Amino acid sequence: MDTAIVMYGPPAAGKDTVTAELAKLGNEFRHYQRMKVGAGRTTGYRMATTTDTEHLAAADQIIYSNSKYGSTYIIDRPELTRIIAAGEIPVLHVGQPEAIDALLAAAPAIRWVIVELWCPRNVAAARAAARGTGDTAERLAAWDTTPRLATADIRIDTAAVDPSGAAHQIVEAVHAARCAIVVPTMHLVHPDGTLDLAATRRHVTEAAAGWPDFFLINGSTTAGDKLTSDERAAIFDIWLEVVDGSRLLACAWSPDDLVTAADRHVTPMAVLRADTRGDAQQFLRTLPSGATIYSHPMFGYAFNAELAEWAKSAGHLPAGGKLAKIQLTDISEIRSAAPEFTIWDGSSRRMRESIGAGAAGVVATPLAALLTRLPPRSTALIQSAIDAVQAKLDLLPDRSAKRDWLLDQIKH
Description:
Blueprint: E1 3-8, H1 15-25, E2 29-31, E3 35-37, E4 46-47, H2 50-58, E5 62-68, E6 71-76, H3 77-85, E7 89-94, H4 97-106, E8 111-118, H5 121-131, H6 136-144, E9 154-157, H7 163-177, E10 180-184, H8 197-207, E11 214-217, H9 229-242, E12 248-252, H10 255-263, E13 267-271, H11 277-286, E14 292-295, H12 305-314, E15 320-323, H13 328-337, E16 342-345, H14 351-357, E17 361-363, H15 379-393, H16 399-411
Parallel strand pairs: 1-7, 1-8, 2-7, 3-4, 8-9, 10-11, 10-17, 11-12, 12-13, 13-14, 14-15, 15-16, 16-17
Antiparallel strand pairs: 3-6, 5-6
Helix pairs in contact: 1-7, 5-6, 8-9, 12-13
């Protein structure tokens, strides 16, 4: 999973110290050393010449550059790519919100963790003076002009949290950023409500370029159960034209849907419809190996820790599933009963909390409206986008109205 950390803050906020603590927690954390053109401190930088930077600029390989303390500092794409290609997590130190914007715009699919470090001005002054570099006044002037971030994945006051504690908090944020995000997709319809395959194909072609880990096809969000098996297969085949099957989940409403998924080597998500626990057990017995499930109380008996424990002991545990209307305690209990079962929380209102409880990911229905204009992949930015759409969906009276609203966002 391509992951990167942007460590933002004013001079003397503790970026170097916290990064050193991160390195103690895992060899994968790698301080991204910016290129520097100029005199002064060389430690922590890749020293370069004006000619070097001119070559990078000509090749459009400079993501961001700024000048301060009489030198120019550059974030270049080749070094970022090199670190990620080595399987490491780059830790980039920046002091300008514009640098974060430039990084996220340059690589929106990377799992970004935006960390804001801060400390009181008097603490920063003492730290700067202790360095003995003779530029305390300049660093405090920079401190005074460094704004707080509007959005961050994690904020740490390094005067209140020691470097080790800060590093552990960042590791937790990295874990949350690596969660799987499943986005239900919509099929488009003609004015009379019938399936419009041509419009659906246009939407799919645009949406396929996005970063979601999985696209859930023909789910309840788009009323997949109201389509025929052939119509569901036709929509599914459109997605297969432009997306690798490993990123698709096929909502299966009938035995024919399971066959469709098997024929195309795609993971099915079978809808658990059962009135009793016995019915649910029989349903799990009939699932093909490697299948996932969609559990929702509106379909009857819902998947729970007791059923998970039985399925594991009986050899009928699905690979995972979308579990709707569950509490955080339910997630923890199911995780404890069957750690092998991949839990996707059916709600995306509380991403960090869901992952903390043991979910491997979330099903982000609001993102169905934003598939062609997703935010960069930062948990905080994604949650903000989800919350904005969810607030509008919550004002609508029923699932049908919400479906219509989502379709309107796609059409416009």
